[in-house]
Amino acid sequence: MGASHRCRSSIKPPSCASLLFVETLWLLSASMTAYACPNNCHCTDRNGVVVQCTSRNLENIPPNLPKDTVVLLLSSNRIRNIPKETFSDLHRLRELDLSHNAIESVEVGAFKGISESLRTLDLSNNHLSSLPKDTFAKLHARVRLSHNPWHCECSLQEVLRELRLDPETVNDVSCSTSVQEEYVGQAVIQVLDSGINFCNFHHKTTDVAMFVAMFCWFTMVTAYIMYYIKHNQEDARRHMEYLKSLPSTSHISKEYDTASSVF
After folding, report:
1. Average pLDDT of 238-261?
2. Beta-bridge partners for 152
3. Per-residue pLDDT tens for 19-77?
4. What is the pTM of this model?
5. At what angle do helices 154-161 and 198-245 cross, to 10 degrees?
6. Is 118 helix (H, G, I), strand (E, B) or coil?
7. How far is CA 140 from CA 117, 118, 178, 186, 218, in A?
8. Quick one: which of 75, 128, 129, 186 could link to 148 by a disulfide (CB 3.0–4.6 Å)?
9. In degrees to the nearest 10, what's the CA dihedral of 101, 185, 171, 122?
């Protein structure tokens, strides 16, 4: 029963005023807690909270974001890393803009908690060259990855395989470096659509490395065996020379017989 209802039947007006004041403070506190805006950001309520943190010179994603956030704009800052479970409490988040930062890494689980609700994710114009395979696990959002220094190899191919790339910027996701130099500068999707499989290159490279390692091992074993045989031969030769240098047994026997006849 609220303070206002109790006050209508109360016979002590001062107590009613106190109850109404406390209830008002409580409602105001709850409202401020639900919509507390991070420092250096601007928040507006549009069927959910829109958090505007663009161009605020931020190095990290602000903590304690409003749980009712539906749009989070963090572009044009100095953010370098997206830790895991950063947005795990923002279950209503639909749009996330992280473009034009200095992001070099995104941890697995970074988008845990928003994979179902998120509709747009912008990671364009950052410093990303690779991503862990499960970075975007279960993510249904349309993703922008353009204008990053991507290294085209097997893990990037596996990431893109399960991803919904934004069709307007998909051709701007290009190979800055590659396991095969001929693909540098080309759009990743066009390379993959041509039938190229970077994972095959990975397996071939691994096979060559294993072959080289086995060849080196075989060469070392062979060299050791040859050294062992040669060393044994030298020992046998020295042993034979030593035996030859010893007095023969027949000569010793003759000398012994001669000495016996004298006595």
Report:
1. 59
2. 178
3. 444 344 444 344 444 468 998 899 999 899 999 999 999 999 999 999 999 999 999 99
4. 0.66
5. 150
6. coil
7. 8, 7, 28, 26, 51
8. 128
9. -10
Structure tokens that stand for 49 in this block: 């909270």
DSSP sequence for 38-96: PTT-EEEESSSEEEE-TTS--SSPPSS--TTEEEEE--SS---EE-TTTTTT-TT--EE
Cα distance between residue 70 and residue 254, in whole Å: 115
Secondary structure of the chain: what % helix, strand, coil (to 5)? Answer: 40, 15, 45
Amino acid at 115: S
Tokens linked to 135: 């970075």
The distance of Cα 203 from the centroid of its chain, to the nearest Å, equals: 21
Average pLDDT, the chain: 81
pLDDT the model gives residue 233 = 73
